[in-house]
Amino acid sequence: MANPQFYPLEVNPLTKEPFLRLRNHKNIIITPPRSSDPTSYCLILNDPRVHKWLTGPPIPHFREHAEAWYAVITPPIAAVLAALDAAKDKADLITVDICPVRAIREILDNGEDVYLGDIGFTRLQDGKLLAPPDVEVDKELASRYASENAERMVGDPKIIWTVGDYLTPSHHGQGIMSDALKTVLDGWAIPRMNARRINASALRGNQGSVRVFQKNGFQLAGLRENFVEARGETHDIHVLEWHLDDDNVP
Ligand SMILES: CC(C)(COP(=O)(O)OP(=O)(O)OC[C@H]1O[C@@H](n2cnc3c(N)ncnc32)[C@H](O)[C@@H]1OP(=O)(O)O)[C@@H](O)C(=O)NCCC(=O)NCCS
User: Which residues form the N-acetyltransferase domain (predicted)?
Assistant: First the structure.
């Protein structure tokens, strides 16, 4: 019998891999990362149309960078899948701290699928972004905000989450990431992680990313100047905020 704890994930009957299907793009699914992903992942990240908007990953992005990143993201997903398995006889759905699916894939007519990108929800770790904008934050205060957010109990509605995403350029502008964000937000983050507050950011001028967030109910909360340094340049960022009152849970 299917494990009800996976709800609303579906499970591929052949591979047993769980997935979420996009609401409007039915040929696109979101699954856990796979060990075969790093090759496609490197190709996407090394495209300037993608990495010009990303400050985190080293560019050029080599296989060893990809392997190191997969070693970071894979174990927590394996752990949450194991926790869902272990809870299969519990009457109520458990609340968890991570979304077990993040790799966006297109299903082709022949049934195979192709890696298109990623959408990851994590606890916000940047103490400067966690602080209210009017608060002057030194290193010590930033680290206090970061620890507070990291130490909140699983399911605490005060946790502030963030979202990072990217998509292969051949598929930009087709409404895929807007759909993916809505799918993960409504399907998992709100009901299964109890996400109530999310702060996202995008480099100044990244209109596509800002629109993806705005179309999902995020409000622009301002521009933070000279906020982040990447590859020898300092960038301004748009900050976007989302919150949900319990009365409005879908
Ligand atoms: C940002 C990104 C994830 C958007 O994904 P997407 O699937 O192309 O976005 P959507 O098709 O859902 O578009 C959402 C909105 O943004 C607009 N948009 C998309 N790309 C745009 C661009 N380059 N410039 C201006 N607007 C853009 C769309 O027109 C749409 O708005 P509308 O419905 O009002 O017309 C994708 O462009 C990407 O991977 N970029 C590189 C990496 C990146 O920037 N990641 C985010 C870091 S914060």
Answer: 28-219
